[in-house]
Amino acid sequence: EVQLVESGGGLEQPGRSLRLSCAASGFTFDDYAMHWVRQAPGKGLEWVSGISWNSGSIGYADSVKGRFTIARDNAKNTLYLQMNSLRAEDTAFYYCAKGNRIAVASRFDSWGQGTLVTVSS
Amino acid sequence: EMVMTQSPATLSVSPGERATLSCRASQSVGSNLAWYQQKPGQAPRLLIHSASTRATGIPARFSGSGSGTEFTLTISSLQSEDFAVYYCQQYNNWPPLSFGGGTKVEIK
Asked: What is the mean pLDDT of chain B?
């Protein structure tokens, strides 16, 4: 069974940083692209970033480009999202999602339960 | 940038009735379209991929159709557990991988 468990969320001040992690199990991690998708409270889904199986292809939403960095450690079956220069509009649930293939352009077959990031002074 | 537009924003349906949800892409995505269901307090769940293929374990009352820029999700006979928000997502062009704004299916 695929399991994706996010951690690292919490309350942080504007301009500060947070690092999210996603521990994956139940599948061969380095056979799939991985993604971060967020959802502001009461709002819709927004793709944040995706990374191919070997980290060779990475993409970001314009709203986070230059501030967020996605990474993966295939030896540890873990996905990361380094979030710098946080803004109030980054407040959201952040979901880790598994792609359906090695390439980033993929659907999201499985989702974690999400971790809440709140940016407020 | 690809824009995905869902309609209606809210759909009021009685249990047992048919629900038809629409998703339009600003440019062709071929058949690279997925539908997700999200219930309150839960993560989204993949329902349909490749425009018309049900994901594993999804009941046959859910069906998807369309290609190019126009897509439809149909729930043939709404059950109580189907009242939720539904999102479409294209994965043909990136970045970004874009979602529609969602359709809330509520009890009439």
From this structure: 97
